[in-house]
Amino acid sequence: MTIRAAADGSALGNPGPAGWAWYVDDTCWAAGGWKHATNNQGELMAVLQLFKATAHLDDDLLILCDSQYVINSVTKWMPGWKKKGWRKADGKPVMNVELLREIDEALVGRKYRFEWVKGHANHPLNEAADSRARAVSEAFQRGGPIPTGPGWVRGGDPMPSGDLVGGADDTVELPSTPGERAAAALAAPIVATSTAPAVATPREVPTLFALDELDEQDAIAPEEPIELTVSLTPAQFARLRARASAAGLTPEQALAKLL
């Protein structure tokens, strides 16, 4: 049998109050998060916790994921990073390495594959995971109870012991730098203070410069273009178009040249 599950992450402000969630159905899902982390950390943790929750099963695992960073990290880039001592092509340390190491260990012997799904496109499983991850982020933001879900409960097969979540007093505020944030976040257990149902709310769309792993992707796979969406006011777009025209470029080329 193939287990079909969605995994997603959320971070308000990116970084900011953050959550992760994996979802199979309304009776089988889990979520958690941190007071301060990045969206990519949430996305990675969702995948890691899904692997852990199903570690006692022999079923194939199909992971529906809207993060190309996560999919490429696990399926394309990790072998090269490991050979280089978990460093990128430019010699810089790989970001979120603690999570990536744990995922690398968790997938040994597992039968799995990833399927990319477009986020915010009304995909039922993706939307369900997204809303639960977002609910955790919002709970941290307002200081409310964290909706952690029932965990792995499917066909009479409960989630294995080993507790994927910790107590509320164990949460920590992450330090300011990305590397310090990752290390501190991963050292702290995920909060579990309530099993209240998550509320579906629109997820915050990352801004142009909120992709904290962009340099990592460029360094490893420069031939693969990365699509970004940026919202401009009419006045901002007019200035961009004028500057691009003066340089003989399209607005898109002018933005790319800035980077």
Q: How would you summarize what this structure contains?
A:
The chain is of the alpha/beta class and about 260 residues long.
List strands and helices in order, with pairings.
Layout: E1 2-11, E2 16-25, E3 28-37, H1 39-53, E4 60-65, H2 68-83, H3 97-106, E5 112-116, H4 124-142, E6 153-154, E7 157-158, H5 178-187, H6 214-220, H7 234-246, H8 251-258
Parallel strand pairs: 1-4, 4-5
Antiparallel strand pairs: 1-2, 2-3, 6-7
What's the CATH architecture name?
A: 2-Layer Sandwich
Which structural class should the secondary elements be placed in? alpha/beta
| General shape | globular
CATH class: Alpha Beta
Tell me the count of domains: 1
Q: Which fold does the CATH topology refer to?
A: Nucleotidyltransferase, domain 5
Question: What percent of the residues sit in helical stretches (DSSP H or I)?
Answer: 25-40%
Unreliable parts: 159-225
The largest sheet is: 5 strands, mixed
End-to-end gap: 46 Å
Q: Per DSSP, what share of the residues sits in E-state strands of 2 or more residues?
A: 15-25%
CATH superfamily: Ribonuclease H-like superfamily/Ribonuclease H
Q: How many DSSP helices?
A: 8
The spatial strand order of the largest sheet comes to 3-2-1-4-5
Radius of gyration: 19 Å
Topology order in helix (H) and strand (E) letters = EEEHEHHEHEEHHHH
Rounded mean pLDDT is: 77
Number of strands: 7
